[in-house]
Amino acid sequence: MRYETLEYKKYDEVMYKYEHSSGLNCIVIPKKGYYKKHATFSTHYGSIDNKFIIPGDTEPTEVPDGIAHFLEHKLFEQKDGSVMDKFAALGSRPNAFTIFNQTVYLFSCTDKFRENFELLLNFVQNPYITEESVEKEKSIIGQEINMYRDDPGWRVTFNLLEAFYREHPVKKDIAGTIESISKITRDTLYKCYETFYHPSNMLITVVGDVDKDEVFEQIEKNINAKEDHGEIKRIYPEENTELHKAYVEQNMPVPTPLFYMGFKDSNYRLEGSETIKYELAVKLLLAMLIGKSSELYGELYDKGLINASFEYDFSLESSYAYSMLGGESVNPEAVKDSFIKEIKKQQKNGLNQHAFERLLKASKGRYLRQMNSVESIARSFINLFFKSVTMFDYLEVYDTMNFDYVSEVFNRHFDIDRLALSVVKNSK
Questions:
Q1: pTM for the predicted model, two decimal places
Q2: Mean pLDDT across the stretch 206-219?
């Protein structure tokens, strides 16, 4: 069995990469002496993938919203019982999640790794879906949809995405709607499974004190031999650079108004390390402008306009990009106005290079600390792998990041005309 060894001596880390004959990529990152072992089996398939051309077809297939999440639920039910019960009997902690562009199945354990890993490999590859179970699941997921519909934090987030995008499915709830899941059938689930759960569209990561040869041998033995069926053509609606809406407000029973604001970014057609370089630059700029060590954060906090709930992030994928920042505030509009004022001041006076260098160093330190968590390592590798980079590539980007590039990104991303605000507040 041949695999690739990638050493990162600067960080005292090594990664082993093996590609199965089916096209499945497998990564092992050994962490000698760690008591916990963590494994994931993920597919590059999420809630936004509702229109696509199946390899070999010429016409698009369109499926109901929420089907990726629905399929995640169904894989845990097997003909001989619940997969969750099987993991519990082995003393491990299993989980799964669906986000916009991926679905991940995982477990953590301290012993019986081989048995747990075999269970993970087998149940993800062998769906057991009946018409009866599909109808039963609609009721369960319907309750979940209603729960999130009544969650102020969830609504303020998706209302901001609604402000950004007119058509793109990223603005839609990951679980879909009651109406959309009512259209899901057993046949449609299997069609999506066969399309997106092909090994060539998937990734296995194992992190912990494990033997790489044993892991790869187990994969070789358990993965179904399939020929690479070719590229899946994902179809997303074209969005212009303008906002769909500048402001969205929703009334809900909250003690303090919630808000998120952010910028719609059209610079998402990047590849490889350029993707993570741009992503890191925007995150550093957010820290410079309104991070906890910034002058603006201190002013807003002292005035009672923000509190410890305040956070920020930036998302950049192959068909969309946006920043998002917010939390609780008695006056979200005042926070927005102060933020715009700060941006204009920095545009006029120039960014502070000393602040940039300090925050770059601090950010790299936090990223390096992730290397102490098997869960964080695995999650980072999944997110970056589908962008054709690795966690170690991200570390290299820190070393090449410079003030001139960050200044260019500042002028590009922080366009006031593309700043939207979402607010959830009590109507009383």
A1: 0.94
A2: 96
Residue 230 pLDDT class (50, 70, 90 cuts): confident
Active-site option among 72, 137, 162, 317: 72
Give me 224's structure tokens. 């179904």
- Annotated catalytic residue 72: yes
Rounded to an integer, the average pLDDT of 281-307 is 97
